[in-house]
Write a structure and sequence with these properties.
single chain; OB fold (Dihydrolipoamide Acetyltransferase, E2P); five-stranded mixed barrel; 3 domains; Lys-tRNA-ligase_II_N; Arc Repressor Mutant, subunit A; alpha+beta; tRNA binding; protein biosynthesis; 23 strands; 25% strand; 563 residues; 18 helices; BirA Bifunctional Protein, domain 2; eight-stranded mixed beta sheet
């Protein structure tokens, strides 16, 4: 492992602390009794407190220093006075441990008394401090100049997502997004629980990938010697519970789809699905708009939210537009009664890329997605989807070519999907067979496996039921004004981290010597390595090629430095 100069110095400080008898990673409990927020809100002059957190800044004033401590709720100012911390003649704790062996980012525990500084800042006068964890890597802390301009901010998206633990420390505002995410889940649970519905859990590993049109991740169970699929949806299991006698069940599920990645899709995502017996999609539309109005208010304190250039209002009621009318409005084309070939030709005429594997449902979906979806900014229910698009949905009571389905569109994106659920087992089998035929034609999103156990469950009888699914990641994107799904996931999926160049032993030797003492005369450094001229030249060429070292010429003096 190649260490930077700062990392080497921090390890040397770690050794020095241990030599002084200080354990840099103590195991015993530290008796914190206040957070930074509580100190400020319950401030009393002279009050004794115990706090803990990361040391984030230090202003050394000789025999005294001001510092900032950051914990889970913010920052608080500390005042270290040498003679207060070290009452006797031995000043090692301040002069050596605090000033020389403590680094920014270190976790410390602090005992002290509250006081107000001359400029009115609330502060803790430290009487004792304890090492809780020594950091071996420096934090990428941003710097602010006198004019308030920020430099060296930790804002590279790939680094932030890959090292979220660092992002949360140096960009505290990022934490607010995840606090709101938790508030959203809490609000939704509260709404469902008050309605009398029960939270349940269903399998993540499934023998058949069902409940959605998506490509699954496949694994293998060694003991059973069978393939298993990561859950793409939990719908069919939740419906089994309705068959079993529950009137309302819901689940926040981790789903996995082996498909593309972009700003609104991650291969692992969180969905909420709820199923309520004796209801239909009309009831579910009203339930959904009331649910989202409640959630928006709980998360942001208002039904209004800003997303990019748009102001969105989640206050009920929402507009309702049929899919047929939406396509007719934005393309002039009426999909009613059209054959698969007619739909394919119409899509081509609109400049939409299609192929022969697409059935009627996929073709209509492509037309709507390309030409209509982006026009719906305010929450809008798109209703009454063609039957070919909805294999698990009940036929429309007034038009057998349609289904009783809606999707909720916000800012051109779907955030909710709901049905009057299909509970006719014979009709359901026919829909499954149609899906299997699409899969055989080459549609890799169509389900090519019939779930016989689910059909058996329906044959035991499922009451009229309405179901709703909401993409939780996408919903919190809208509520926090984040256009990228990676911003609302603690740990989004990333490509493997690129490793540094593979170095030869000779190259490593030179790098090690330069990390001990940088900027060495080239002749002196070569002598220290003991390498032959040929090996030295090869190693130096390799390091230069990797951009790790460079030769600096100053008159007759040539030195080697780390790049």
């Amino acid at each position: 492992m190649q260490l930077s100069e700062q990392e080497i110095i921090r390890r040397e400080k770690l050794t020095a602390l241990r030599q002084l008898g200080i354990n840099p990673y103590p195991a015993n409990l530290y008796p914190v009794n206040h957070t930074s927020k509580q100190v400020k809100e319950q401030f009393e002059e002279g009050k004794k407190v115990i706090v803990a957190g990361r040391l984030m800044s230090v202003r050394d004033q000789g025999k005294a220093s001001f510092a900032e401590l950051q914990d889970s709720e913010g920052r608080i100012q500390l005042y270290f006075n040498r003679d207060v911390i070290c009452e006797g003649e031995d000043k090692t704790l301040y002069n050596q441990v605090f000033k020389k062996l403590t680094d920014l980012g270190d976790f410390i525990g602090v005992e002290g008394e509250l006081f107000t500084t001359q400029v009115g800042a609330k502060c803790i006068r430290v009487t004792h401090f304890t090492f809780l964890s020594k950091t071996l890597r420096p934090l990428p802390l941003p710097k602010t100049d006198e004019e308030g301009k920020v430099y060296d901010a930790f804002n590279d998206p790939e680094l932030r997502y890959r090292m979220r633990y660092v992002d949360l420390v140096v960009n505290p505002q990022v934490k607010d997004v995840f606090i709101k995410r938790t508030k959203l889940f809490t609000a939704m649970r509260t709404f469902f629980n008050k309605a009398g519905y029960m939270e349940v859990e269903t399998p993540v590993l499934q023998s058949i990938p069902g409940g959605a049109a998506a490509r699954p991740f496949i694994t293998h169970h060694n003991s059973l010697d069978i393939p298993l699929y990561m859950r793409i949806a939990n719908e069919l299991y939740l419906k089994r519970l309705i068959v079993g006698g529950f009137d309302g069940v819901y689940e926040f599920s981790k789903n996995f789809r082996n498909e593309g990645m972009d700003r609104t899709h991650n291969p692992e995502f969180t969905a909420m699905e709820i199923y309520v017996a004796y209801k239909d999609y009309n009831w579910m539309m009203e339930f959904t708009e009331n649910l989202l109005e409640f959630c928006a208010t709980q998360v942001n304190g208002t039904t209004e939210a800003t997303f990019g250039e748009h102001k969105v209002n989640f206050k009920a009621p929402y507009a309702r537009v049929t899919m047929t009318d939406a396509i007719k409005q934005f393309t002039g084309f009426d999909i009613t009664g059209k054959s698969e070939d007619e739909l394919r030709e119409a899509a081509k005429a609109m400049g939409i890329e299609v192929n022969d594997t697409m059935g009627k449902g996929k073709l209509i979906d492509e037309i709507f997605g390309e030409k209509c979806e982006g026009n719906f900014i305010q929450p809008t229910f798109i209703t009454d989807y063609p039957k070919e698009m909805s294999p698990l949905c009940k036929s429309h009571r007034d038009n057998p070519e349609l289904t009783e389905r809606f999707e909720l569109m916000v800012c051109g994106k779907e955030i909710a999907n709901a049905y009057s659920e299909l509970n006719d087992p014979i009709d359901q089998r026919e829909r499954f067979v149609a899906q299997m035929e699409l899969a055989q034609k080459g549609d890799d999103e169509a389900n090519g496996i019939i779930d016989e156990d689910f059909l058996r469950a329906l044959e035991y009888g499922m009451p009229p039921t309405s179901g709703l699914g909401i993409g939780m990641d996408r919903l919190i994107m809208f509520l926090t004004n984040n256009p990228s799904i990676q911003e609302v996931l603690f740990f989004p999926q990333m490509r493997p981290e690129k490793k540094g160049p593979e170095l030869t032993e000779d190259e490593k030797l030179i790098i090690g010597l330069l990390k001990t003492e940088n900027n060495q005369p080239i002749a002196s450094l070569k002598e220290k390595t003991g390498l032959s001229g040929k090996k030295w030249d090869a190693a130096m060429k390799g390091l230069a090629k990797h951009g790790l070292t460079k030769v600096v010429v100053d008159g007759d003096l040539k030195t080697v430095v780390l790049s």
